[in-house]
Specification:
Blueprint lengths: L4 E6 L4 E5 L2 E5 L5 H8 L2 H4 L10 H11 L10 E8 L5 E9 L5 E8 L8 H15 L5 E7 L3 H9 L3 E12 L2 E11 L7
The structure holds coenzyme A.
EC number: 2.3.-.-
Protein name: GNAT family N-acetyltransferase
GO molecular function: acyltransferase activity, transferring groups other than amino-acyl groups
């Protein structure tokens, strides 16, 4: 699939990336309901840090606290939502945290079950990684996933990320010890669109 990635507009707090089928922008309070809906899906939450049900106040506090974070600001998570261009529906999000003083960032991603299997997560994460290397000038991007999270692993591999770590029972997660993979890619390895 050929994907056009176009940066449309950016200032410090309001950042927008446009891809072939998606608009990526900072999360906003108006995203609360859709965010709640897909994050409360037990299958979507299965390998994620939260346990459904999340409640509205938790999510609106979470979003409120992110409003002052500038894209790429070291030490701060940015939550970027994915909006379908054709109907402006909010279908997923990714999180990016640039670490302090390292020029490296951690990436996370979540897509509503209704929209999985259509390449949207690939399109969105590819655009954000591209932005992070090209515009933020980062050196390395990494992502950590449960070893059983096959769709996430597939996505990370399709982005060209390399498995660099395999942690054994490094996390007590949802009632049991879990294993995690670390995937990463360097800026010099990135295949720019
Ligand atoms: C991880 C997650 C984002 C992956 O979503 P996804 O939709 O499978 O990922 P992609 O966007 O890469 O889509 C790939 C699939 O779309 C298909 N596809 C359909 N149209 C496509 C297109 N135009 N372009 C690319 N792929 C397309 C691919 O063939 C592939 O299908 P397959 O998995 O049956 O082979 C999703 O499973 C999810 O949100 N999981 C729950 C949250 C989670 O665990 N997050 C990770 C935490 S580390």
């Amino acid at each position: 699939m050929v994907k056009k990635i176009k940066k449309r507009e950016e200032d410090k707090n309001q950042f927008i990336i446009e891809t072939e089928r998606l608009i990526l922008r900072n999360i906003d309070l108006k995203d609360t309901e859709t965010f709640l809906e897909y994050r409360n899906d037990p299958l979507v939450a299965k390998y994620q840090s939260w346990e459904p049900p999340l409640i509205r106040e938790q999510v609106s506090d979470f979003i409120n606290n992110l409003q002052t974070h500038k894209i790429g600001e070291p030490g701060k998570w940015n939550q970027i939502v994915w909006i379908l261009k054709k109907n402006l529906v909010h279908i997923g999000d990714c999180a990016l945290k640039v670490q302090e003083d390292t020029m490296q960032a951690e990436l996370g991603f979540t897509l509503s079950r209704n929209y999985q299997g259509k390449g949207y997560a690939y399109e969105a994460t590819r655009a954000l990684i591209n932005y992070a290397f090209e515009e933020l000038g980062l050196h390395r991007i990494f992502s950590i996933t449960d070893c059983k999270n096959t769709t996430a692993i597939k996505l990370l591999k399709s982005l060209g990320m390399r498995q660099e770590g395999h942690f054994i029972e490094n996390i007590f997660f949802k009632g049991a010890w879990g294993d995690e993979f670390l995937y990463a890619i360097l800026q010099k390895e990135w295949n720019y669109p």
